[in-house]
Design goal:
Helix content: 55-70%
Number of strands: 2
CATH architecture: Up-down Bundle
Shape: globular
Strand order of the largest sheet: 1-2
Number of domains: 1
Distance between the termini: 41 Å
CATH class: Mainly Alpha
Strand content: under 5%
Order of helices and strands: HHHHHEEHH
């Protein structure tokens, strides 16, 4: 992959000012503990939404299924946890990028149980919450596209991903299409 392609892949998830035009995540929220709470609360809602739709059907034409979004969110939080651990234990080592579509294919999201996905999501957010609370706030680690990132950057991006992917799944609800 070229350096330009790597940079463009990261731009979609860079923090922005104001609210996300789709999921309404507030990029201006600067309270670290509140961002952690938003992420944990967002995960708690996934099960209720999933119980009201067909988890294997695309939530909208051209989009992933709800089950895929759940498994992707599991990986988002697992990678987030590993990034927070790196900031805590070996910040000079840095963290890699990852391709969500490649990960979906490699892990065969479509063949994984949505029920088990919800169990994995709860376990992932608990490990992520613990890592978030333990990570130092004054340390950064290198990221290939974003430069030096700190715990706040990881928590903010992960909180947005949870919010956004919950919004993605909600698109499968009948009332969302109205």
């Amino acid at each position: 992959m070229t350096e330009e392609a790597d940079t463009n892949a990261f731009v979609a998830w860079e923090p922005k000012e104001g609210r996300c035009t789709e999921c309404q995540f507030d990029w201006d929220e600067a309270d670290y503990v509140n961002l952690i709470g938003q992420c944990v609360r967002g995960v708690a809602v996934f099960g209720g939404v999933l119980s009201r739709i067909d988890p294997s059907a695309p939530v909208d034409p051209g989009l992933w299924s709800a089950s895929r979004y759940v498994w992707h969110t599991v990986d988002v939080l697992r990678f987030g946890t590993e990034r927070l651990w790196t900031i805590s234990a070996d910040p000079a080592f840095g963290v890699p990028s990852w391709d969500e579509n490649e990960m979906a294919e490699t892990r065969c999201y479509d063949e994984l149980s949505p029920i088990v996905g919800l169990i994995a999501l709860i376990a992932a957010v608990e490990a992520w919450r613990t890592a978030s609370m333990e990570a130092p706030h004054d340390v950064g680690t290198p990221h290939p596209e974003a430069g030096l990132i700190c715990a706040f950057d990881v928590v903010q991006r992960n909180a947005h991903e949870v919010s956004h992917h919950l919004w993605d799944v909600k698109r499968g609800l009948p009332e969302f299409a109205s």
